[in-house]
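Quick start: what a row looks like.
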Amino acid sequence: MKMDAVVIAGGTPTPGDPLFSFTQGKPKALLELAGKPMIQWILDALDGAETIERVIVVGLGADCGAAGAKVCAYTESKGDILPNIRYGVEQALAIHPAAEYVAVVSSDIPAILPQHVDWVVNSAMQSREDVYYNVITRQVMEARYPGSNRSYVRLKDVEVCGGDLNVVRTSMVQGRDALWERIIASRKNALKQAALLGLDTLLLLLMRQITLERAVEKVTRRLHLSGRALVCPYAEIGMDVDKPHQLEILRADLEQRMSMHV
């Protein structure tokens, strides 16, 4: 099965952000890594993925200096990440109204490869849920990027961090205004997050008394949607650029990749 991809590229670090000294007011997606803007690595991976048909970039214009053979639209940023995801899915539906699913990709995971994208899409399409969220175990992440210092959620059966290439059903955007407003409102408010998840689920998470499968079941039921966690074997999907040391790790990693293809 093929689907369209929405690339979220709207973030611009501000003074005080760990990456501001590197970006100097420019979008993070345009940070240079191994001779390319960071987003170009993502567009290259999507171009090579058999499961991706079209690509929509949210947050950059066509004059940004990055391009892909599958890019069919560049659109403005709507500010925060969740409004940008929603807007990107709406744009995908405007281009392809019959689309049932889209892949949502962050512009700051430059190490991804076409086969990683195909694994996510093919794994998700083994069922028909509303949301598919990638997680990577601590063992997989630290074996590939031992100095990444990612944050992990410690569950009863596993420690995981989140991935930044996920799949959503397009109908989650249409006619679900109340749900989206709740999710967006809770994004940076711990009390609202607790209300969204349910106090019982939050306590179980804090006490590490809930498994990954059970946590997904409880959260999705509370949000009145269906979902599945994809335990991803590829650390690249979770290796995003949020801090200077992560930027340097990925620069070195991608420069090595480039040298192997010379």
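That is the whole record. Residues 244-260 form the longest helix (17 residues). The chain has a mean pLDDT of 88.
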